[in-house]
Amino acid sequence: MGRQQILEDINAESLKTDIPLLCIGDTIKVHARIVEGEKERIQIFEGVLISRKGRGIGEMITVRRVVDNEGVERTWPINSPLIAKFEIVRRGDARRAKLYFLRDRVGKSRRLRDRRRGMKHVTTDKA
Amino acid sequence: MGVEIAGKKVGMTRVYGEGNVSVPVTVIEVMPNVVTQIRTEDRDGYSAVQVGYDDIKARRSTIPMIAHDHKAGTGPKRHHREFQADGEFELGQTLGAEQFEKVAFVDVIGQSKGKGFAGTMKRYGYKGQLATHGVERKHRSPGSIGGHASNAGMSGRIKKGKRMAGHMGDERVTVRSLDVVRVDTDKSLVLVKGPVPGANGSIVVMRPSIRLRKTKAAKAAEVAAS
């Protein structure tokens, strides 16, 4: 067995198969598991998906939201077991792969992005 | 003393361990290590176990080596090495990943990647010189290497062993006390935590850790007893 194959077999155990199609610019809810002592609860973080980085087991996503006029960004490995679920709230219209420019946007221009042209390729889900 | 088993470094990845923590691991594919000779006190003056690993075609070996391996009932091997270990071994016995099932920590020995001729900054972490303040063309130089009459010299020359630029890497490196994250005997894989010297595909040697810190030693004993 090739070296790459061995690694892929190991990764296959932790790769999630139930991740919905997440596009840059989408507003999503991330259900994150929070462990507090004995108890475990789910915290929902809702925001705009501004970046997907890496691939395979190491893929990271960054979600940005604004709380009390303060930008908050959280980054997770997409395959982390600490994320229970992804929910898509709204499909956004983004022309680039990384939406870092949102950090510099203030007020209305920040939420300007919405609706996607030609959603056909998205509706088929999990291409 | 524990066994020393050779394997191939496959590469690095991550696994999610206890508490869903991401653990960086190096995957090592353990090769079948066949006992090719047993050194005894009576005959050789010391006791040790010799193992052969990495199969090769007979025409790549030599007649004496083929015969040597054949005595152990195995085909020709590329490498042979000896180690001293407690316990009973038989000629022709195959040692594999199962040797690490009850081992919590391992030492991994490999040949580090060659870096070529490297300066003192890269090789020894010297700070170099300033970027400005009148420094010219000497930004990465080591600076003074000591006076010839000081303790660094005394004999009109620089003391031996003075750290200077030179060849870096491509040397035997041992990393100690790496956690064994998982042992897969079916696929003959061992996953250890953290990086291991050498390029992917290079041969590394693993042994149960000798010399552990107190906390680690306690855990090692616990795992060994289980």
Structural notes for this entry:
The complex is a heterodimer of chains A (127) and B (226). Chain A has a single domain, classed as SH3 type barrels (Roll). With 127 residues, chain A is mainly beta. Chain A is 13% helix and 39% strand. Chain A has helices at 3-14, 120-123, and strands at residues 27-36, 39-53, 60-67, 70-77, 83-90. Chain A is globular, with a radius of gyration of 16 Å. Chain A contains two helices and five strands. With 226 residues, chain B is mainly β. Chain B has two domains: 5-113 and 172-225, Elongation Factor Tu (Ef-tu), domain 3, CATH 2.40.30; 114-169, no CATH class. Helices cover 13% and strands 36% of the residues of chain B. Chain B is built from four helices and twelve strands. Chain B has helices spanning 41-44, 63-71, 120-124, 214-225; strands at residues 5-16, 22-30, 33-39, 48-55, 77-83, 94-95, 105-111, 116-118, 166-168, 172-184, 189-193, 203-208. The chains are: A mainly beta (127), B mainly beta (226). At the A-B interface, helix 1 of A face strand 1 and strand 2 of B.
H/E order of the elements of chain A?
HEEEEEH
Number of helical runs of chain A? 2
Highest-level CATH class of chain A: Mainly Beta
Tally of separate helices of chain B: 4
| Total number of beta strands of chain A | 5
> How large is the radius of gyration of chain B?
23 Å
Show the largest interface: A-B, 18 and 16 residues
Assigned CATH class of the largest domain in chain B: Mainly Beta
In spatial order, strands of the major sheet of chain A run 4-3-2-1-5
**What is the chains' assembly state?**
heterodimer
Q: Give the CA-based shape of chain B.
A: globular
Summarize the biggest pleated sheet of chain A: 5 strands, antiparallel
